[in-house]
Design goal:
The protein has about 170 residues and is mainly α. It has two domains: about 5-45; about 65-165, Cytochrome Bc1 Complex, Chain D, domain 2. It is built from seven helices and no strands. α3 packs across α7 and α6 (about 110-120) packs across α7. It is globular. The chain binds heme C. Heme C binds near residues 80, 94 and 122.
Length: about 170
C-alpha cells in the first residue's frame, strides 16, 4: 500500500468524523429506545398506576384521597370544627363557609398545600396548632369529598410539601 502523507491525514480525519457520527447515532438510538420503553410501560395497564404516582397528580380531580381518610376527617370535623363552620360547612358568623361559591372563590387555583397549611397553622381558631399532620390530611380529604371531588385508592399525603403540585380547580 502506497499512501502519500496528505492522503493519510485525510483518511484519519474521515475516520474521526465517522466516529463522532457513529456516537451521535448511538445517542439518538439510545434516547429513542428509552422513549419507546417508557411508552410501552405506560401503555401496559398494570404499570400505569405506579408510573403515575411518582409524577404526582396535578389537581383535586385526580382522586387524591380515600373515602376512609375522608371519613376520619369527618369525625374530627364534627368534634372540632363544626361548632364554628357548621355541620354543612356553610359557615357561622365570621367563620367562613368551606363549601360552595365562597370556598371556590377563595381556593380555586391554589395548591392544596395552602389549604393544608391554613388548617394546620390556624385551626381550630380557638386552639391552633393542636392537630396532628395526619388529622389535617384527613380534614382536607373530608373538605374535598364534601365539595364533590372524587375519592381514589391512595391516601392524601399528610405533608404540605407533597401537596404543592395538587391544584384546587373547579369542575373542568
Ligand atoms: C372557634 C371557631 C372556629 C373553629 C373551632 C374552627 N374554625 Fe376555621 N375559621 C374560623 C374563623 C373565624 C375563620 C376566619 C378567620 C381566621 O382565619 O381566623 C376560619 C377560617 C378557616 C379556614 C379558611 C377559610 C377561608 O376560606 O379563608 C379554614 C380552611 C378553616 N377555618 C378550617 C377549619 C377546620 C378544618 C377546623 C377544625 C379543625 C376549624 N376551621 C375550626 C373559626 C373557627
Amino acid at each position: 500500500m502506497n499512501v502519500k502523507p496528505g492522503q493519510l491525514a485525510r483518511r484519519y480525519r474521515g475516520d474521526a468524523r465517522s466516529a463522532t457520527c457513529r456516537r451521535r447515532v448511538i445517542g439518538v438510538t439510545g434516547a429513542l429506545t428509552a422513549l419507546l420503553t417508557v411508552m410501552q410501560v405506560a401503555a401496559t395497564p398494570g404499570a400505569a398506576a405506579p408510573l403515575r404516582r411518582p409524577l404526582g397528580p396535578g389537581s383535586v380531580w385526580d382522586s387524591v384521597f380515600t373515602l376512609a381518610q375522608a371519613g376520619r376527617g369527618e369525625s374530627t370535623f364534627r368534634a372540632t370544627c363544626a361548632s364554628c363552620h357548621g355541620d354543612s360547612l356553610a359557615g357561622i358568623n365570621d367563620a367562613p363557609p368551606l363549601t360552595g361559591p365562597v370556598f371556590h372563590k377563595t381556593w380555586d387555583g391554589n395548591a392544596l398545600s395552602s389549604l393544608f397549611n391554613r388548617i394546620s397553622n390556624d385551626m381550630p381558631s380557638d386552639n391552633p396548632g393542636t392537630l396532628t399532620n395526619p388529622q389535617v390530611g384527613e380534614l382536607v380529604a373530608f373538605v374535598l369529598k364534601y365539595n364533590g371531588y372524587p375519592a381514589g385508592k391512595v391516601e392524601l399525603p399528610s405533608a404540605a410539601e407533597s401537596l404543592m403540585q395538587i391544584k384546587i380547580l373547579p369542575k373542568p
